[in-house]
Each structure stands twice: as structure tokens, then as C-alpha cells.
From TrEMBL:
Organism placement in taxonomy: Eukaryota, Viridiplantae, Streptophyta, Embryophyta, Tracheophyta
Segments crossing the lipid bilayer: 78-101, 113-133, 145-164, 170-191, 198-216, 261-281, 301-321, 354-373
Protein name as it appears in the record: GDP-mannose transporter GONST2
Pfam families (alphabetical): TPT
Subcellular locations according to the entry: Membrane
Sugar phosphate transporter domain sequence ranges: 86-361
Family annotation (InterPro entries): Sugar_P_trans_dom, TPT_transporter
Main location: membrane
Membrane topology of this protein: Multi-pass membrane protein
Keyword Acetylation: no
Keywords: Membrane, Transmembrane, Transmembrane helix, Transport
Cellular-component GO terms for this entry: membrane
Length: 376
């Protein structure tokens, strides 16, 4: 399952550190802190004495300082760990899908999407029943509001599957930059949001890299490039539509809110009927039943792992966003394209020319410039 782009981010405000120190495990030391603070406040005329008290406090009561250092280390390691988890899950997901579709030559992208979404629904349901996550109760009003978003979501996943089957990972990564261009144009007309000159310059660089990459691509496939262009349009449409529907969807729930986990479950749950209908109409079910690859144990393991990784991307994305913010998330997402592209070139022995390699590197650089421009 492709990474779900979530616009609503719940930011939990951390309590003040002084408030946390009041609830220290050592009650006696807390009392000593209060007594020393009172002596310090009342003895304003004796500055030297206050300084001695403060020095004594730091020397003989170091627990508070240790707690602060420990709390600070957790805050510092949180973004690093969450960012690493997001990057690993994102890279692994793309590589795993490429293995399923190309290495095993599996020609049923819709069936793979359906299988991955079923796994996501089951995992979220288990986590909800165990109390690990909280999921909003769905109703028909919410489903009707969310349906246009889900139709685009299904198209986005399917087009992404088929483009990855025909195009190498590096070129898919570079061509995905077109999504940023389409989104920026959509924001201009739908939300009257104007971009600065640096952003437009970065997008021009993306266009150049995509055109030069396609021309110099030794494994060029017109079908794959068509699917990828459709994926860029659908991904941008998904982001823009989600932004418009979000507030209306929240109003359609009983609680008046819709958290990220609920959106992940809602998207995957509603995609299942669409997937079943498409599999029947296109006759894909006959291929799935008759092909020998579905009887391969390793294929089943890899396909199942891709389902878990798809859900992992959703959760690690939310975790990373909570630890940092949209700006850092966008920048790391752009930088993350570098290892994905290089891994795709190495693992799948992609025929490569020097001009094509330069186009790929130029496209990666353009993505980083775009993220930096959006920050300014």
C-alpha cells in the first residue's frame, strides 16, 4: 500500500517541565526543593547566602538535573528514531512492491492492492480492540462524504502499482516530482495559494529532470510512463480533495473529529468493495487462481510483508509528523528519495547510461531544493 498523505496532524502540547518536576518520585527531595526555594525568595537581602544555597542544591540534589537530562535526551532521540522508522518503512515498501510485481512477474496489481488493504484493516481492527489505538465510529453520512476521496485513493494505489511494474524504481521516484507541480497548480486555482519564485524555479528543475530522464532512460516503457503520469495526477488530486473534504468529514462524525488512524482504516475499508468489483470486471481473479506464482511460499511472504509495510508507513508518518512537523517531514521525504533510487538501481541491475544517471541525480537535487524552498 502506498503511503497515505494525511493533512490533519494532532499536536499534543507537552506539559511544562516545572510541572513535571513537582511529581518527582522522591517526595522528600521535592519538599527540600520547596523549602530551599522559600528561603531563597525571602532572603533577598542576602544574595551571597542564596547563591550558596543554590550551589548546595545543585551539588547534593542532582536528581532533578538527571531527570531533565533524561527528558532532554528522549526529546532529542524521538525525531531521530521516528524519522529513521519512516525512511526504512518507505524504502522497504517500494522495494518490496517492485519485487512482487517485477521479480515475480505478478500481473495482478489490483489483487495485490486488495490484499494489502485487507491486512491493514485487520491490523488496525486488532489494535483498536486491544486499546492501542482509537478509531472513530463510522456512519453512512461520513461514508458518503468520504467516497470521492476513496475513489481517487484507489486509483492512486492501482496506478502506482502498475507504474512500478514497468518502470525502474529510480525513474518512478523522479517522475513522482510531477505530483508537486500539479499540487502547486491545484492550490493556486482551488485555494488561491501562491508559491514564491524559489518554489517555481525548483519545479522547473523537476520538469527538466523528468524530461531528460525519460529521453535517456534505457528501459523506457510508454505504458509504464502513462501509468506514472496518471499516478501523479491522482496523487495530487487526492491531496487537494482530502483538504477540501476534511472539515466536512469531521462534521459528519458523532464526536466532531476524525483522527489519522480512522482515516487510514476508512480509506482501506472502503477500497475493498472497489477492489473486488474491479477484479471481477477485469477478470483478474482468473489469473490469480490459475497462476503458479501465488502458490510460491516466498511470494506469499513478500506480498504479506508489503501489506504490513504499507500500514507501517502510515503509522511512522504520523509518528514522525508528531515528533517534528510538516516542514521537516517534507524535507526528509525529499532526501529519502536518494537511498530509494540508489537501492533500486543496485538491487534490480537497471541498465544505466551516464546521461540518465545525471538526470536522476539532478531530479533528486531538484526535490531537495523544492522542499527547502517551501520552508522559506
Amino acid at each position: 500500500m502506498a503511503a497515505v498523505k494525511l493533512e490533519a496532524v494532532v499536536c499534543h502540547e507537552e506539559p511544562d517541565e516545572s510541572e513535571l518536576n513537582r511529581f518527582s518520585d522522591n517526595g522528600s527531595q521535592t519538599v527540600v526543593y520547596q523549602l530551599l526555594d522559600q528561603i531563597h525568595n525571602h532572603d533577598n537581602t542576602s544574595r551571597g547566602l542564596s547563591e550558596r544555597f543554590l550551589r548546595w542544591r545543585r551539588r547534593y540534589l542532582p536528581v532533578d538535573g538527571d531527570n531533565r537530562r533524561e527528558h532532554g535526551s528522549v526529546k532529542q532521540s524521538g525525531p531521530l528514531v521516528s524519522g529513521a522508522a519512516y525512511c526504512i518503512s518507505s524504502c522497504s515498501m517500494i522495494i518490496m512492491n517492485k519485487i512482487v510485481l517485477s521479480t515475480y512477474n505478478f500481473n495482478a496489481g489490483i489483487s495485490l492492492m486488495l490484499y494489502q488493504n485487507l491486512i491493514s484493516c485487520l491490523v488496525v481492527a486488532v489494535l483498536n480492540l486491544s486499546g492501542v489505538v482509537s478509531v472513530e465510529k463510522f456512519n453512512w453520512k461520513l461514508i458518503r462524504v468520504w467516497m470521492p476521496v476513496n475513489v481517487i485513493f484507489v486509483g492512486m494505489l492501482i496506478s502506482g502499482m502498475y507504474s512500478l511494474k514497468y518502470i525502474n524504481v529510480a525513474m518512478v521516484t523522479i517522475l513522482k516530482n510531477a505530483t508537486n507541480i500539479i499540487t502547486a497548480i491545484g492550490e493556486l486555482y482551488m485555494f488561491r495559494k501562491r508559491q514564491n519564485n524559489k518554489v517555481w524555479a525548483a519545479m522547473f528543475m523537476m520538469i527538466i529532470s523528468a524530461i531528460s530522464g525519460g529521453i535517456t532512460d534505457l528501459t523506457f516503457d510508454a505504458v509504464g510512463y502513462t501509468w506514472q503520469l496518471a499516478n501523479c495526477v491522482l496523487t495530487a488530486s487526492y491531496s487537494l480533495t482530502l483538504r477540501r473534504v476534511m472539515d466536512k468529514a469531521k462534521q459528519s462524525t458523532k464526536s466532531g473529529s476524525l483522527n489519522e488512524v480512522s482515516m487510514v482504516l476508512l480509506n482501506n475499508l472502503l477500497s475493498i468493495p472497489f477492489g473486488i468489483i474491479l477484479i471481477i470486471l477485469l477478470g483478474e481473479w482468473r489469473y490469480v487462481i490459475s497462476t503458479d506464482v501465488t502458490k510460491d511460499t516466498m511470494f506469499c511472504v513478500v506480498a504479506t510483508a508489503s501489506g504490513f509495510l504499507g500500514l507501517a508507513i502510515s503509522f511512522t508518518s504520523m509518528w514522525f509528523l508528531h515528533q517534528t512537523g510538516p516542514t521537516t517531514y517534507s524535507l526528509v521525504g525529499s532526501l529519502n528519495k536518494v537511498p530509494i533510487s540508489l537501492a533500486g538501481l543496485v538491487l534490480f541491475n537497471v541498465p544505466l547510461s551516464l546521461p540518465n544517471l545525471f538526470s536522476i541525480l539532478f531530479g533528486l537535487f531538484a526535490g531537495v531544493v523544492f522542499a527547502r524552498a517551501k520552508m522559506s
